[in-house]
From TrEMBL:
GO terms for biological process: response to stress. Gene3D superfamilies: Winged helix-like DNA-binding domain superfamily/Winged helix DNA-binding domain. InterPro entries: HTH_MarR-typ (IPR000835), MarR/SlyA-like (IPR039422), WH-like_DNA-bd_sf (IPR036388), WH_DNA-bd_sf (IPR036390). Pfam families: MarR_2 (PF12802). It comes from Gordonia aichiensis NBRC 108223. This is Putative MarR family transcriptional regulator. Residues 8-145 form the HTH marR-type domain. SMART domains: HTH_MARR. GO terms for molecular function: DNA-binding transcription factor activity.
Amino acid sequence: MSSLTPPRAQLPFLLMRAQSAVSERINDRISRRGHPTLRPIHGLVFTRISQAGASINDIAAFIGVTKQSAAAIVDALESDGYVTRRTDPDDRRARLIELTERGRAVTRLATAAAAAEADALADAMGDGVLAEVLDALRVLADMPSHPQT
């Protein structure tokens, strides 16, 4: 993107680049601590199942993929020992995906990695810019996800 691109046109691309860069730095911290197979999408799965577990359908809806893709992601996490499946006590036909102790440990590690990244970002921006960025991000986060055209 050139410096001639209008600021409004740059915004979505810069937001996507920033999100990708932050995710990759957090993922790199996790990888260097012994979890090289994990990717940012796995963190979304961990977030969804961390409290009470979830079904494949719930995970698929949360991370925005098909049920088949969610099942493949969960299969990989299960073979690496991060999650387990158990029968849903409310519906014996359904299975819940839950974190194992290894999954809970990497979730704690990811939380620490995200905090370290937040500190690095805040230090790079300084307090004034940080406050402005946080205000702007809150506005963006509160916008409807399906804009009316």
